[in-house]
């Protein structure tokens, strides 16, 4: 493992580290990514009625971009889930992700991933079936104000989930180096 680039590291370097991490994945990570992507896709697809079902209803039909956002968010979320699966080559006493710095990074990437999933749900869901939008804006307000914002929510969902995935993948290759504590001057 190499030391991690700083917090303002370049995106190309992060992308290269992410590709290296993906190449190192074994069957446990690939299987977890596939399973989680299917599970997330089913959950999001059924709840937003992108997959027609008798349990949920949708007043306004989906638009063309709902489907690619749904699939991409499912794939990114599945891959993000797989980053939490322990690689088989890491000894149990030398775990990746130990320490307070790693915990903060895991929380941050977990929050980004969760926010991306929630934004995807708001983005691909029916604008008038969303109870929060309906309560806040009313039926006509949800159509007039919330529906035009949904594509931006979709872009935000993809960016947040993608950033969380890149962050986690980068951390599998490059570990953060803890900074030295400042000495107290007396």
UniProtKB/TrEMBL annotation:
Keywords recorded for this protein, A-Z: Membrane, Transmembrane, Transmembrane helix
Regions that span the bilayer: 30-51, 63-85, 145-167
Name the record gives this protein: Uncharacterized protein
Organism: Promicromonospora umidemergens
């Amino acid at each position: 493992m190499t030391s991690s680039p700083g917090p303002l590291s370049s995106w190309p370097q992060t992308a290269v580290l992410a590709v290296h991490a993906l190449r190192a994945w074994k069957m446990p990570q690939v299987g977890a990514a596939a399973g989680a992507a299917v599970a997330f896709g089913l959950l999001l697809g059924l709840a937003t009625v992108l997959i027609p079902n008798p349990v949920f209803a949708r007043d306004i039909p989906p638009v063309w971009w709902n489907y690619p956002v749904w699939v991409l968010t499912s794939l990114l979320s599945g891959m993000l889930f797989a980053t939490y699966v322990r690689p088989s080559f890491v000894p149990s006493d030398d775990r990746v992700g130990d320490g307070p710095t790693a915990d903060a990074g895991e929380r941050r990437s977990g929050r980004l991933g969760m926010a991306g999933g929630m934004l995807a749900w708001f983005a691909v869901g029916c604008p008038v079936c969303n109870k929060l939008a309906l309560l806040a804006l009313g039926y006509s307000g949800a159509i007039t104000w919330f529906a035009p914002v949904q594509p931006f929510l979709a872009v935000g969902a993809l960016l947040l989930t993608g950033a969380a995935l890149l962050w986690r993948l980068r951390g599998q290759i490059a570990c953060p180096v803890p900074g030295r504590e400042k000495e107290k001057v007396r």
